[in-house]
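Students often ask why we bother encoding 3D structure as a string. The short answer is that it lets us treat folding as translation between two languages. Here is a chain of 72 residues written in the first language.
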Amino acid sequence: MFASRFMPCADCGASVERSDAPGHRCAAERLVEYQLFGLREEIAGFEHQWRHFLDTSGGRFEVWLAARQLRG
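And here it is in the second language, the structure alphabet:
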């Protein structure tokens, strides 16, 4: 089997040459993008969860309370 000389960084997903792995430092922007990529399903489901909450009695109360606080 062919062994690649590159491997993905576990923290940022960047392709790092195996010999450079011990000295690899994750770029802040790359790290954030990789973390957001890992959360994409949770982020996509947030609006659905939010709308579901607003359909509950607790959600309707929160909407009522927010509207009341804005008026007063």
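Translate back mentally: DSSP finds three helices and two strands in the chain. Keep this in mind for the problem set.
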